[in-house]
Amino acid sequence: MPLLLPQAKDGKLALIAAATPKRASFDPNLPTVAEYLPGFEAVAWHGFFVPAATPKPIVEKLSAEIRVFMQQPETVQKMAELGADAVALEPEPFAAYIASETARWKKVIVSANIKLE
Known about the structure:
By secondary structure, this protein is mostly helical. The protein has helices at about 5-10, 55-70, 75-80, 90-110. It folds into 2 domains: about 1-45, no CATH class; about 45-115, no CATH class. Helix content is about 45%, strand content about 0%. The longest helix has 21 residues, at about 90-110. It is globular. The two termini are about 30 Å apart.
């Protein structure tokens, strides 16, 4: 979205639909693909990772600081300018999300017979 939003604002590009499960905060009038194809979702996400052996208190401290940062008005505003929502999950829900995304996209890769080249 960071590359597309400026072009859409300049009228050089028309946004047809968002691939997010709900309407995007940057344009609530933009429909989602899921409104036409129920269940469709293809979103980009980013996360912070540490080595598996990192002590739990350190993971919890880093996670807490990241959540504070992601809730700051400046962060929320900048993310919105980039066409994203500022979201920060705690470690366990984030791990569950990664596992569900991995399983979901694995099914797509297998069913489409996608191979690395």
